[in-house]
Task: structure prediction
Amino acid sequence: MKYLINISLLLLMPYVGIAQDHTTTTVEGYVYESNNRGYLSNVKITVLNDDNQGVEATTETDNEGYFKVNLAHVHSSFTVKAEHKLFFSKNMSAEFSTKGKTESSFVKFELERRPGYIFDVTLAESNKDNRAVSVDAIQGAKIEIYNNTNAEESLVIDSLHSPNFNFTFEQGNHYTVMVRKKGYLTKRMEAFINIDGCILCFEGVSNVTDVMTQGNELGTFLANIEMDKIAVNTTFELKNIYYDYDESYIRQDASVELDKVVAVLKDNPGISVELGSHTDSRGKDAYNMTLSQARAAAAVRYLVDQGIDTDKLSSRGYGETQLVNACYNGQTCSEEAHQQNRRTQLKITGIEKVNPLDNKSLKQIIEEDVILKSLDNTQIQVQPGDVLPEEIQKDIDRLRGKN
Result:
């Protein structure tokens, strides 16, 4: 007996001996910080097959701390792992009964933060004249954080959409924070986290409120970073730039403050400034004018010695023409009151249209600084026609922008 078989029907029939199972499995859930401190984004989620520990799927939590994955293979149980560098990792089991039907599992992760400190920042325009007046918040700033210990970028935000940002400092690291905004002086800050016995040493920020846990392993630091507007004739008081009576040399305490001015001018090479010096009222007016000019010139020489371009600097003596208190000629005042008048101020006298550092990242700026310091400490004798050592030539080429 012969049978006629329709080949087209065979092609539509399931192949005998192969089980067809289209069961799907979904794993979803949330990740949040312990003590109800909020949902966590960018947490890496990994789903592992308990039978062989193979990776079934990976994803990350969204801004609301939520994640969801669909699994292509069906097993009775899985392990879900949540990982984030600032938190201790955690594993949770996801059990299923998956025979012949679609199943899902919901998991919630509560992650404990590793030792470190949250740096919570608000940017605002400075108001030195009247602290009681509210200041404008600053948006659109460029934020960069560089880890000097690991020599790597930790955070880059080209344009901050709000006046606030936060970042977690990890223990045992030195960070540089730079904030840039067109029309404002660039702000650079240094943070030393649990280095040489310093829990948190922060240079460049004065308004900081800290909330620390017992043992100082965790903490939150609230900081108001004030940005100074750049405008011609804007004047900044240089704190503690004082001089001894009838002297023009730079005192040791003044050099510490002038070093801060060096840092500001290096981060803002697009401005020119005047250093203006003032005396107290004692002595003859003409002599005080000469003395103040000598003091301003001494401050400029100090900045030039620290690498500031002399073309960006000028000096001017004001003598006793701009006293800050009532210690006029013939008045009896304490030495402390007179010293308040022996001061130095910084005034912006010019602004370039293009800041030379605008196209350089904080990483590039720091790397170039490291090269310059290494070259300063390198002394070699080079005769006419000699070839520089290869490593030194490479450093010079990098500074010149060559590949």
Observations:
- Residues 7 and 13 are 10 Å apart (CA to CA).
- The first helix runs from residue 7 to 12.
- The chain has four domains: 21-111, 116-227, 235-351, 362-399.
